[in-house]
UniProtKB/TrEMBL annotation:
<keyword id="KW-0564">Palmitate</keyword>
<feature type="signal peptide">
    <location>
        <begin position="1"/>
        <end position="26"/>
    </location>
</feature>
<keyword id="KW-0449">Lipoprotein</keyword>
<keyword id="KW-0472">Membrane</keyword>
<dbReference type="InterPro" id="IPR023605">
    <property type="entry name" value="Lipoprotein_NlpI"/>
</dbReference>
<dbReference type="GO" id="GO:0005886">
    <property type="term" value="C:plasma membrane"/>
</dbReference>
<dbReference type="InterPro" id="IPR050498">
    <property type="entry name" value="Ycf3"/>
</dbReference>
<dbReference type="InterPro" id="IPR019734">
    <property type="entry name" value="TPR_rpt"/>
</dbReference>
<comment type="function">
    <text>May be involved in cell division.</text>
</comment>
<comment type="subunit">
    <text>Homodimer.</text>
</comment>
<dbReference type="GO" id="GO:0009279">
    <property type="term" value="C:cell outer membrane"/>
</dbReference>
<keyword id="KW-0732">Signal</keyword>
<dbReference type="InterPro" id="IPR011990">
    <property type="entry name" value="TPR-like_helical_dom_sf"/>
</dbReference>
<keyword id="KW-1003">Cell membrane</keyword>
<dbReference type="Pfam" id="PF13181">
    <property type="entry name" value="TPR_8"/>
</dbReference>
<protein>
    <recommendedName>
        <fullName>Lipoprotein NlpI</fullName>
    </recommendedName>
</protein>
<feature type="repeat" description="TPR">
    <location>
        <begin position="103"/>
        <end position="136"/>
    </location>
</feature>
């Protein structure tokens, strides 16, 4: 069952699986604005070991094109997980040269096009994913996000409905459906979210975020809940990355742009590069900065 909107990848080398996670202290503090902060995630030494093995295999092992494509893809996933997008993009393109039907690689390429604002290219990449793998549900999410940022709202809602329909117990899917629908009607989107809340898996962390959107939880309650029931070292930073992003989106919707910008910056500071929330916080921050600059220029024309 998919519980988080993130890329999860496991590289298998010599029969041993190495989970691609970092190591983070769960020590946190509160800054002068009252925002909960956490130390950013730093890459684990296991990533360096895995990269060394992949580099050795790609440079010296006799591999079929399919095997070589897969190792390029695996290395690209590691680069992506630590924020090295140019290196990961090179690997994904190399993987596609060797294995043109690798849907996972097209999915990453589409994400990068979205982050760069090249929406038509992003749509084409996600279309390719769905042609190769019609049941690839995250392609609906990622194409929906591209359509959302490309301001093609009706199509974005359609993709998010497809994504949501495949797991109606997932709070993240309900949230992204709300975000796209709210571009058309905030009132109708909230009514639907209220119903969708009744379908969610009980006691899931994402429910706290949905409840915040519905006005049933405060920011303080969300941050308190983020500390509860943690199961691995990165989880607190991951939850804060998500909380910062979704809180920022509400502040943005309410016209509190400076507050939203601060929360988007905090999401970026967690270094959870492979989370959807981290990927698009930079786009959101750029949009806010452009809006604030335009408003300031209008007030003080040269």
């Amino acid at each position: 069952m998919i519980q988080k909107m993130r890329t999860v990848a496991v590289v298998v080398l010599a029969g041993m699986s190495i989970l691609l996670t970092g190591c983070v202290s769960t020590q946190s503090g509160v800054n002068e604005q009252g925002k909960v902060m956490v130390e950013p995630v730093m890459p684990d030494y296991k990533l360096e070991i895995t990269l060394a093995k992949l580099n050795e295999i790609l440079s010296s092992a006799e591999l079929t094109d399919e095997q070589r494509a897969r190792f390029h893809y695996d290395r690209g996933v590691i680069y992506d997980s630590v924020g090295l997008r140019i290196l990961s993009r090179i690997d994904f393109h190399q993987a596609l040269k060797l294995q043109p039907n690798l849907a996972d690689a097209y999915n990453f390429i589409g994400i990068y096009y979205t982050q760069e604002g090249e929406f038509e290219s992003a749509y084409e990449a996600f279309d390719a994913v769905l042609e190769l793998s019609p049941d690839y549900d995250y392609a609906f999410l990622n194409r929906g996000i591209a359509l959302y940022y490309g301001e093609r709202n009706a199509l974005a809602v359609s993709d998010m409905e497809s994504f949501y329909s495949q797991d109606q117990k997932d709070g993240y899917r309900a949230l992204w459906l709300y975000l796209t629908e709210s571009e058309i009607s905030v009132e109708q989107a909230k009514i639907r979210l209220e119903y969708n809340r009744t379908q969610l898996t009980p006691n899931a962390w994402s429910n706290e975020l949905v409840d915040f959107y519905l006005g049933n939880k405060s920011r303080e309650q969300v941050f308190a809940a983020a500390k509860e029931g943690l199961s691995h070292p990165n989880e607190y930073a991951e939850r804060l990355c998500e909380a910062y992003f979704y809180i920022a989106k509400i502040s943005q919707q309410q016209g509190n742009y400076n507050d939203a910008a601060n929360y988007f910056r905090l999401a970026l500071a967690t270094n959870i590069y492979d989370f959807v929330e981290h990927r698009y916080a930079r786009i959101e921050l750029a949009k806010i900065n452009a809006k604030l600059y335009a408003e300031e220029s209008a007030k003080n024309p040269h």
